[in-house]
Amino acid sequence: MNAAPAQHSNLYLLAPELGLGSASASAEAIADESGREDLVLRKLGPRAWRRLYQFRHLYEAGWGGGTGRMLSPRALEVLYRFIEQPAFAPLLEPSLFLTDEGHLELCWDDKTRGAVQIEFTPAGAEYYFERTAEEGFILTAEVAELVRRLASS
Amino acid sequence: MMRIASSENVVRAICSDKWDGQRLSPSLFKGLNTSVSRLAIIPLAEHWELFRGYVERPPARRLEMIGEINVGQLEEIGRAHQPAVELTVEPDPLEWNRAHAVIPQRINRGLANSIVKRLQLHSGNEPRAERKGRG
Q: Among A4, A17, A130, A138, fewest CB within 10 Å belongs to which?
């Protein structure tokens, strides 16, 4: 005699059983990514937005005559954290560069500090203010404090 | 290590990762063992072809300009910096570039800014057109 078919407690399978949790996470990631692209466009302008796209997608390991490193995802996270601060509002369109180490470098002109340069690394940000020749490094957790400092004068 | 004479001029390729049409990245000269190339061994006009062949990686990385500086001027910039840095340029010939040389000292951001400002910039369309670098 054949065994009775297995009884399912639910008529429909729930999303986790179907493995849809990951699809939902992907949708969130896409929405997040889209929000970040908007953020870059709004805060840094179209030139930096276009350059960031190129740095992310077209610069493979070894790009600088064999020594250039790919853009560090952690350095990119630090850049996002920096520019998402409401107080970050450069007067002129900043310039965005990729360093040989795979870091991002943001440069703009500030009325009181002259040239301001911030290099985003996987661990935090290195800053330089031209007029006072001040150089320093802050950890990722201190990024908001650096933005407040820049906005305070 | 042998030093290159102060009278010589050296060049560095400036690609699109370090030039956005508005500003020049100071990281062009920041760090250790910065690569340069000697005009006494290969003339400027030939450097365009050399850099296009070995440094450019289209479509992303394009050779935009060549930055030139006199070695004596570079040494002076290092001495004037606070704290002073004794900058030297040392020959380091490579298979693809016999004129290759390096600045072995660690260059910090402030010093790199001073160097970038003193660069004489040559653009591809106007090989002898000169502009001063902007940090």
A: A4
